[in-house]
Amino acid sequence: MYPALFHPQVYETDMLPRTVWSEGVALPVPNRLGASIRTEVAVIGGGYAGLSAALHLARDHGIEAVVLDAAPIGWGASARNGGFVTLPAAKASAEEIIARYGEADAYGFFRTQADAIELVRRLIAEERIEAEPQGDATYEVAHAPSAVAGLQRTAEIYRHRFGLDAAFLGRWAFDAIGHGGTEQHGALRLRGGFGLNPLKFLLGLEAAARRHGAVVHADSPVLSWAKDRGRHILETPDGQVSARSVIVATNGYTPDDLQPALANRTIPALSNIVVTRPLTEDELAAEGWRTVCPVANARSLLFYYRLLPDRRFLFGARGGTSGSPREDKAMRAWLERRLGEVFPSWKGIETTHFWNGLVCLTARRTPAIGRLPSDPTVLYGFGWHGNGVNTAPWAGQVLAHAVAMRSGGMLDLPAPYRGLPMNLFAPAVRKLALKAAYLWYGLTERG
């Protein structure tokens, strides 16, 4: 059962979102599990993390893997996001991570985040995935003069303490290569990141996993989970999987009754996107738009946006606490209004798509990757904080390696990833925390 956090339509797995990514793309026919099977590893979740785990298990380690997803492949967050390959997968700032975990573990965290970006680039090349990579950097824009100093400090930390190719560009320097608008006061440039088509990347991972021997069953939710004589028994509506190990990779869509040790550990949050019709050269010039790189701003409830290969403009933001049809209608209108306020020349421009989906936060504001202390044959990865396009495939690779090593011990990871985050006890607590955060950000940030 999904946590009682949002309107039921958020969890309706038979409703595929109408995204710009799905236009002209053939989704795989669901291969629903209809028998009792045995395997070495069962992977619950057919998004980036789960498919990457299955791919690396089969390709790199020769280990049998079966993926179970409750919905069609391409239904969840891996096909609903904005296609940003960037870092970090955390809401805690670089300064906070250094203060909390120490210099060495902070360095390790950010270096593995950079490795994750390179893994995506490598998977696209090695598996010949037509993911439409776009750009050679990502930008974080100062939305107000008060945000400049913080981005300057972050750029210094990235460059001098973590060895990342980062720099802060003043307002006019960024205007010359990026964009103008009312909320542009300079930007942090991070080399190496890029944009892609997230659905095509996901489908490429799915095809690669199957090509290398993994089995993928969609429309096959896990209804019950027991253990019998050292093996995990996962029951689906029409079948059963018996496995030695289980990898849980369900992120913001993790059911509370899937695995007791994982219940109430995630904080799902809605992220919303509108996409415009294709923009003309004159319209782009009116806002000084010059980049194909993905951009986000420094707001706590950030805007994220990018120009797509066909010149449509994608504009997204966190927000909403129910996901009901009424709230969705209001959220679309708000996004359209804010798009016109940030880029005044585009006020009233037609939008052709609106959709949303769940990102996954944790109480500690960093990801969680590891083994269950109570059962080392159960591994997990979640909490990508909106940057799962790179972190989730990397986590899948890490979890596959951990299964192959059969050590049963703690994964050798930097401290920000290690261990389960705080148990928040009940869905109501998580929803209250989310509403309180939105209220606080609304009071402290204009717009």
What would you say this structure looks like, in words?
This protein is of the alpha/beta class and 447 residues long. Helices cover 32% and strands 23% of the residues. The protein has ten helices and 18 strands. The strands form three sheets. Strands 1, 2, 8, 9, 10, 11, 17 and 18 form an eight-stranded mixed sheet that branches. The longest helix is centred in the first third of the chain and has 24 residues, at 103-126. It is globular. The two termini are 36 Å apart. The model has no long low-confidence stretch (mean pLDDT 94).
Q: How would you summarize the topology of this molecule?
A:
Blueprint (H helix, E strand, L loop, with lengths): L35 E9 L3 H14 L3 E4 L15 E2 L8 H8 L1 H24 L10 E5 L6 H15 L3 E4 L1 H7 L9 E5 L2 E2 L2 H14 L3 E3 L6 E5 L2 E5 L4 E9 L18 E10 L4 H6 L8 E3 L5 E5 L5 E6 L6 H18 L8 E11 L6 E5 L2 E8 L5 H18 L21 H18 L3
Helix pairs in contact: 1-6, 1-9, 2-3, 3-9
Quick structural gist:
With 447 residues, this protein is α/β, with parallel strands linked by helices.
Number of helices: 10
Distance between the termini: 36 Å
Task: Give the mean pLDDT.
Answer: 94
How is the biggest beta sheet arranged?
8 strands, mixed
- Helix content estimate: 25-40%
Which consecutive residue ranges, at least 5 long each, have pLDDT under 50?
A: none
Rough shape?
globular
* Secondary structural class: alpha/beta
What is the H/E order? Answer: EHEEHHEHEHEEHEEEEEHEEEHEEEHH
- Beta percentage is 15-25%
| Radius of gyration based on Cα positions | 21 Å
* Total DSSP E strands: 18
